[in-house]
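User: Predict D-malate dehydrogenase [decarboxylating]'s structure from this.
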Amino acid sequence: MKTYRIAAIPADGIGPEVIAAGLQAIETLAKRDGGFTLDVTQFDWGSDRYKRTGALMPEDGTEQLKKFDAIFFGAVGAPDVPDHVTLWGLRLPICQGFDQYANVRPTRILPGISSPLAGVGPGDLDWVIVRENSEGEYSGHGGRAHKGLPEEVGTEVAIFTRVGVTRIMRYAFKLAQSRPRKFLTVVTKSNAQRFGMVMWDEIAAEVSREFPDVRWDKMLVDAMTVRMVRDPKSLDTIVATNLHADILSDLAGALAGSLGVAPTANIDPERRYPSMFEPIHGSAFDITGKGIANPVATFWTAAQMLEHLGENAAADRLMRAVEKVCEDGTMTPDVGGTANTQQVTDAVCDAIRGSNI
Ligand SMILES: NC(=O)c1ccc[n+]([C@@H]2O[C@H](COP(=O)([O-])OP(=O)(O)OC[C@H]3O[C@@H](n4cnc5c(N)ncnc54)[C@H](O)[C@@H]3O)[C@@H](O)[C@H]2O)c1
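Assistant:
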């Protein structure tokens, strides 16, 4: 029997609510499966810790996480702590420290959930967005001079390296190759940004030659938003920079019904370090403590985690259970339902226990 060591970092806002739901679902799956168990360690890292001690996680935080097979993460961000402090104090040090350079964000319309796009239903929107997750616009390079003075300047430098771009293109082409349509869209902004983005395009063309069976096209990021809304069926696998994919995947989540159903996996494809699995959404201050956070994004990222661990049958069973529960109409208010987080979670656990495949 395999045992997976999972580091759970629920952190802030609705993070603890959805991570509790996710853990309940994967514990139920482990029991149903019988082939693996989970050894979960909880970490109290986040904004409360920051307010108490001045740091969101301990100095040796990433060192402590190294021994785990995967990290299950909620959300970070508090109304009374600046967002750049929380993001750079917890989530980004883990993503960058563990070189989780491929951020994988599947989006599709689940049965029973309505897209805000008229006439678009399950099967019409089925995408995977691959976000470059280690450099680009979020590399952390920049600074401020003459702080507070009229002549103050601030720079935010986007860093693109040949190594970084090549590896994410290879990952995206390979993923596109594994999907039935074998089709990749490379998002760019090389009309306005003449250096990093032109190199991005050139490397995409170079890497494409390694994948002759994958069709691909190129879109400027602004036009891409229009295509996602007007012609969702024309897209399949998508690769974009750290910033572009960050924005496009929120749009993707909304087009698939709600941010509450959108998952993400921060992957170290070389498996040198643990990968991290989280819902796309943030701490959602407006619904924290109300018990109505949609746990579906967290279930979906838990399925990505199980797949990464090699438990494909359990991952499929979890997604089938989620789809059944959505189809039956047990949903939270963000997707038009009246159920609360616990009711959706219990329904998914029942569906897992009742599944006969
Ligand atoms: N990965 C992360 O940890 C992460 C990601 C995004 C934002 N944040 C942080 O979260 C805080 C709030 O940010 P925001 O309001 O821009 O984004 P958000 O994702 O927290 O919320 C945006 C909207 O979506 C709704 N929503 C989000 N998740 C939902 C769910 N599971 N169920 C139902 N509704 C849901 C919220 O109620 C809100 O109306 C900020 O501090 C921000 O920095 C963290």
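The CA atoms of residues 26 and 247 lie 29 Å apart.
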